[in-house]
Amino acid sequence: MGTTRSTPPVTKLADARKAMYQQQIVAAAEYEFSRTGFADARVSDIAKTAGVSLATVYKYFGGKDEIWDALNAARMQEFVAAVRVRTDGIDSPLEAILVGAHAEVEFFAAHPHFLQLHINEGLSWASASAEAGRGGQRAAWRTGMEMITRAAELAVDAGQITHLSPRIAAALVISALQIWLTDWVSEGKTTPIEAVADAVVAHLRVSLSAGRA
């Protein structure tokens, strides 16, 4: 009867150290990207903010583009998870979209540097999944767009959205997020985020169900 070999403690420690440094570097990069924009962010500043040497950054990442991709991938995984937690179990497809939009506003508010770096890019979020955007950013926004489009397809099939295609409905959701969150930031984040989320939901409730009898 064979025996199962466990992972050596040294390997586990090395893996844990690698994950720790990667998370530390990505968090620092998120701050630097939000502060200066991707183009002007320097890897040396990312290393300084992370509290590691430049050699350590290059040990785990090939450069600024690779860090950018890792950041966007990680945040989008968290974004999707946050929406699913709030929408699982909701029977109404339209209501799931609206509850999801509320969660999405709260997610960005909870990650202000991630929000700011996307505002800095100056792109339409609804089209960043196409040719606009940079590297992993396009994949991240494509994931978000596809998730909301699938929800809109269910709402169309259920007769809850009757005047819009699923993709246009999804684009309206994403555009509303960008408009309200950008305004919230420009106004100094003085409005409670719950009120911002409620305003987005109220707008979408009218916009998405406008064609219903």
TrEMBL record:
Residues in the DNA-binding region annotation: 42-61
Pfam family, one: TetR_N
UniProt cross-references to InterPro entries, sorted A to Z: Homeodomain-like_sf (IPR009057), HTH-type_TetR-like_transc_reg (IPR050109), HTH_TetR (IPR001647), Tet_transcr_reg_TetR-rel_C_sf (IPR036271)
Gene3D superfamilies (alphabetical): Homeodomain-like, Tetracycline Repressor, domain 2
Keywords tagged on the record: DNA-binding, Transcription, Transcription regulation
Domain of life, source organism: Bacteria
Domain HTH tetR-type: 19-79
Transmembrane segments: none
Record's protein name: TetR/AcrR family transcriptional regulator
Source organism (scientific name): [Mycobacterium] nativiensis
